[in-house]
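HUMAN: Spend a minute on the protein record below and explain its fold to me.
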Amino acid sequence: MSTRAPRPVRRNVVVLFADLVGSTGLAERLDPELLQQVLDRYHQTCTAAIAEHGGVVEKYIGDAIMAVFGVPVGSEDDALRAARAAHAVLARVRELGAGLAPVLGTGLDVHCGIAAGEAIVVDSPGSGLRVIGDTVNTASRLQSAAGSGEILIGDDAARMIRSWARVEAVPPLTLKGKSAPVRAWRLLSVESEARHQDDDQIPLIGREEELQQLAQAYRRAVRGRQCCQVTLLGTPGIGKSRLVREFLRTLPEEVMALTGRCHSYGAGITYRPIAEMLESLNGHWPAVSAEIEPASVRVLRGLATAPAGSGTAGEDPGVEEISRAVRGLFEALARRRPLAVVWEDLHWAEPTLLDLIEDLASWLMDVPVLLICVARPELLDARRTWGGGIPCSFALELAPLARAPMERLVAELFVRRASAAEVVGHGPGDSADRLCRRIVAGSDGNPLFAELLLETLSEEGEDAPPPPTIQALLGARLDRLGQGERDVLERAATIGNVFTSDELGVLYRDELDDRPRMEEIIRRLVRHRMIRRGETPGSFQFTQTLTRDTVYAMTRKELRASWHLALADRLQERARTPKAHPDGAFEESSQADRARHLETACHLKREVRPDDPLLPALTERAAQALIAQGTQALHRKDLPAATALLERGRALLPAGHAAHRPLALRLCDAGLARGEAERAYAALDAAERMLPDDRRNRLTCAIQRETLAARFGTGPAAPGALRERLAGDPDDDLSWCRLHQLEALTHLAAGRFGAAEAALRDGLRRARSLGDGYEEGRLLSGLCELAQWSPAPIAEGLALCEELSARFRADRALLVPVLISHARLLALSGDVPAARDALATADQYVGDLRLDLAGAAVAQVRGVVEALAGRHAEAEAAFRRGAAALRAAGQAGPATTLRIYAARELLRQGRPEAAREALARLPDAAGELQLRAEVILLALRARLACLTGTADRALALAAEAEDRLERTDDPCLRGDVLIEIAEVRRAVGRPAEARAAAVRALRHYTARGAGLPAERVREWLATAGGGPAMSTAGEDPL
């Protein structure tokens, strides 16, 4: 990639503020020249202490000093370095004050503040280093709040040093300029080594094969009395050290194990791992030293006693002498018993130590020694020939844990925290399962990340950002990459977790000098284990989701905004080309990505360029894209997604935007479909706030409130008054469209299906005049469903179903209600096998898409089809399944209707007592049943009354059913009830009246084109119409 001038960089940093206590009093007492000398020495003392720990002094502000850790290159232990630097500053300033006390008349002391977080870092030759962001302000305010000799540390920084430091909580601090109290900790001390949590109590999971390989290397070293070197590679947190500890525990007691850790910074770190090994020998040293050459003993003593294992004490031996001495030590130890030597964090090792280890592996002879070199993959970048030429050497790389062992590990971690009462707000059950699933998915097979995520999400909730410790680990890895690698990763992270080189090319535009160069960088990133090849050809994906998230967070928002916009533009261009996927799935996915990119670009622009003149147009594009996606989700009955997308679109729209009116209706529809009245009404309230002076909007919302009242059963629909208010505005197509739907709802409740159909067709004309595909689709689906009960000929309904099947072929969610209606109409027309096929297809779609309520509708129509086919036991079971599903969804009224249908099927099976018991168990729903359920229940009770010999009651109930039947124009319902009435009248000895009722039923069926029930009535008329009473076990028409 091309070389660029220094540019602002977004990164995680740790900021340290240190201020001299009592400086005002000093200035008052001391001559300015003496004060300058004191402050110069103070500044030099602080600067030296900070530099020793890798900090950079950003500026001096009087007697205050601001230092930054994590620039120009971050380290995973930046917070620890800052804490150590603060303690060093405190100690050295006090030491300086003690030396100056005779002159000053008092000592010197400081107070410090430390904060970690995001900042913009600008480092240019002209103006030097600048660090900008809230992290700087927080560190400054913490320092001001700290008492003399005190170090206050922010919450994120405290989390990052928890294993190394002793801290105590202080009450939340009210800091100047901060909108909310700040959680802080008092830093008491910092240890030289981390306090390891007792994670060894949890069984090592998923590493059986690697344990066997280490055991095999040990056996080879012992059997052959030779030195075997195993290089154990793995990314941070993958479990390298945990595996080694488990392996060492499996070794025989006779084995001596030595461990030394390489350090990332500090003075004299080259041989510090060897000094740690010598220190761990304890009582073994006298006996061992007697077997080593005196010169080598002196060298080893020098390494053990020199500050920080620097190897510079005494005679200052050369590297050859040190290598010879260490080789002699290992030989002496291994002659006594097998020796296992662990070099931890070898990726931090100095080249001199790496040379020494290679020398040991090559020249240790006739002694059983196992060298375990624990490192990150970066070791092989520093030493590409590592392990080459050594007779017994191999590398073992730890891959991320597979899903199954990761689930076991997270479960173990969760149980351990729960037993310690550390898990807050996540008891057993769905909440805990959801938390564990998220941790498994988010940690990408990394045990340390899983533990840190569990800790953070348990304490702070599931919306908490990634733990700062993980961000520091990943940020440090990223900082060790070259600028070309960072450029590629930043663009890839903007694309998403999965990306292609073509998409990267879009984001480079004219900046890409050489595409083969980019391909080479991608290969290097694969080698660094930052990315891997994706599942589809030509794709790549981040090896860890958290890596992608960290890269994205560390990319400047202005760059992200421009890249998101470029990706959205590319997707829009592709949408104009011929569809590559006829089923539309690819296009829908692309449009969802386009909406996401536009929305993100909009939010980023608002944060960093709120005055951008192009922002209003971008906001409009993003809002419309989200609304379009939300509408698609609403069509396919993905109600949670629909609600979320539509609300996100609404959040982008400014007050007064005309889109608030139709958007409110869609959000209201989603709330209604979810049974959430509060959400549905809130959508209308929001529209009235956004359009306070819009008369049409007020009327549309009033119409929709009437619809909600009718649908939720809180009041009867009253469209008449609304029609009068709307009469003066014949061009308000949206309000008229919704009013016609309200009128249709009113007609449906009264059983006037023809009038309801006419109202829906009026609404359809208005929707087409609007050009509103959403309203048109709703109305067409409504007409299709209404065709099941309409007085129009069945042939018309079948034609409509076929038309909509073709129209909705790419959207299975929209196809389900069409298939259900089609099945019922097919069965009525006499094609039961085709009806069953349609229901089977609908059932498959319902299962695939998890459309639970639609599943209840499938069960209901399956009951109708099987009843028409004379399979009454199967029909009863289907009605019961549908009733249970509706009851579970809180739809008690429709559930009761299906229970009535199930009771009728019991009677048709010749089980009157079971039918009577089923009716007795119905809830008291007086006045709440739909007309359809009312008349069927009356007819069913009349039939049962016949069987108990109460003819008068049977006739009275039949008469009441017939009277109410006149209120509906559903021909099949009329036919169904009239044939039941015919049975009652025949049973009580009124054959002429029975025949008249059956003839009327036949007339209704014939007019409708319902061939199957019509044929059954003809059979009834031919056999039972004039003969003896028919058994209740006989086969009735529906």
User: Anything to note?
Assistant: The first strand starts at residue 9 and ends at 20.
